[in-house]
Amino acid sequence: xxxxxxxxxxxxxxxxxxxxxxxxxxxxxxxxxxxxxxxxxxxxxxxxxxxxxxxxxxxxxxxxxxxxxxxxxxxxxxxxxxxxxxxxxxxxxxxxxxxxxxxxxxxxxxxxxxxxxxxxxxxxxxxxxxxxxxxxxxxxxxxxxxxxxxxxxxxxxxxxxxxxxxxx
Amino acid sequence: xxxxxxxxxxxxxxxxxxxxxxxxxxxxxxxxxxxxxxxxxxxxxxxxxxxxxxxxxxxxxxxxxxxxxxxxxxxxxxxxxxxxxxxxxxxxxxxxxxxxxxxxxxxxxxxxxxxxxxxxxxxxxxxxxxxxxxxxxxxxxxxxxxxxxxxxxxxxxxxxxxxxxxx
Lengths: 168, 167
Description:
By secondary structure, chain A is mainly α. In chain A, 80% of the residues lie in helices and 0% in strands. Chain B is mainly alpha-helical. Chain B has one domain. Helix content of chain B is 80%, strand content 0%. Chain B contains eight helices and no strands. Chain B has helices at residues 4-12, 15-22, 26-52, 62-90, 92-96, 99-122, 126-129, 137-163. In chain B, α3 (26-52) packs antiparallel against α4 (62-90) and α3 runs antiparallel to α8.
């Protein structure tokens, strides 16, 4: 989408009744941000706990598939909460995110992190022993876990950075 | 009598506080570390709270859940306190005058007392109900109160950012 179209879209979005409602009630945006960050806390902690288990620094006496089954399924419903609150925040202040490179970086990182989380969940549910076979798979698992930790941490950084990189 | 203002002045006037105030990148960086560590504190303590409420991880003994999770919670808490202190000294006087900031500190204190009560009172006979999926009421109350307090801590923290714009 070209820059001009995007700006026009932001203008249109900011003029909608819903955007007006979000803008004029001063408590709505911080309230949405609080729900958003609580959701982030749940997903982030779940992902980190499973990644730490892959690195064997968390509950190594419990099999990895059990840990994954305990912590990963909740990622998806909570993600829905994040999408809803995130979308409302964008509707309330379209320019803050949609005209901000940091926002797109955050979304790209989110795609990577969710792909890693989904792939891990899927591999373990279809073959619980998957990450134990041979010498290569545990290494691959650790690499994926490291990538996942880095991606989730970067998402949180980017999220906070959106506030500092918004244009006019 | 020594006033709080005199106590914090040396920190607020220190070189570190100066750098955080003057460097455009330093404050957002510290703030991001703070948000990240708070998320880990809240998310991990929630695992323990839900176990105490009998709502999650019920196939595991309570003691095993706390032993596995609490080191993570405490490590993240140390980082949150360190990063929070750095932000605090950059503008100490203004933070102390902010009601949400003071409320946040009190709520963290309350969460600490809640945890101490759990260890000293509720969990005294832990071996007796360690394996039960639904712990006794006095443990469930601690878990429920903890969830409430930490949500309130996050809410106050976000509101501090809104009432004291720095960046």
